[in-house]
């Protein structure tokens, strides 16, 4: 396996809602909070993946959000060995490489539905400040969150 294949390609959605807060979700197993995210399927573009994952994980359809920005770079992190079986069904990856997207919520937040599809990923969500996730994300994702949030920040600051 090449070093590129060691990282599962994924997308992350930072969804901005009322009062410029960001959607922050608690994993159903209560082992952390994160932005909606997920793997890119075979033949799928990162944009297609983020729209699909947003619908699957939080119930927001393409017309409910506006994609504002996509990070230029991929951000990589390693998953601790003891957590890999939970994160990767076949345990073939050592981590993830992620494209991050900034999106604005266009619809009412009552459209957020954490039970939109199976398996259910989250059981709670809140609107948080932009930097709050950096303080509360699981430690092995913290550096990637810091890098990605700094890259997205100029576009986030343009949102009124």
UniProtKB/TrEMBL annotation:
Where is the Nudix hydrolase domain positioned along the sequence?
A: 6-150
Coiled-coil-forming residues are none
Signal peptide per UniProt:
none
Keyword terms of this UniProt record: Hydrolase
One GO CC term on file: cytoplasm
One biological process term in Gene Ontology: mRNA catabolic process
What Gene3D superfamilies does the database record attribute to this sequence? Answer: Nucleoside Triphosphate Pyrophosphohydrolase
Q: Which GO terms describe its molecular function?
A: mRNA 5'-diphosphatase activity
Instruction: Provide an example Pfam family for this protein.
Output: NUDIX
Cofactor(s), by name: Mn(2+)
Q: List, alphabetically, the HAMAP family matched.
A: Nudix_RppH
Q: What is this protein called?
A: Nudix hydrolase domain-containing protein
């Amino acid at each position: 396996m090449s070093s590129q294949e060691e990282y599962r390609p994924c997308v992350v959605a930072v969804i901005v809602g009322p009062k410029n807060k960001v959607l922050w979700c608690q994993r159903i197993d209560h082992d952390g909070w994160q932005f909606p995210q997920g793997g890119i399927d075979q033949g799928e573009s990162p944009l297609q993946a983020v729209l699909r994952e947003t619908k699957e994980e939080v119930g927001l359809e393409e017309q409910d959000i506006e994609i504002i920005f996509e990070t230029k770079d991929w951000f990589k992190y390693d998953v601790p060995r003891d957590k890999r079986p939970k994160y990767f069904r076949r345990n073939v990856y050592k981590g993830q490489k992620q494209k991050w997207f900034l999106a604005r919520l266009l619809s009412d937040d009552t459209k957020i539905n954490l039970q939109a599809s199976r398996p259910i990923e989250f059981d709670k969500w809140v609107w948080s400040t932009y930097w709050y996730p950096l303080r509360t994300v699981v430690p092995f994702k913290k550096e990637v969150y810091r890098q990605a949030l700094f890259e997205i920040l100029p576009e986030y600051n343009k949102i009124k």
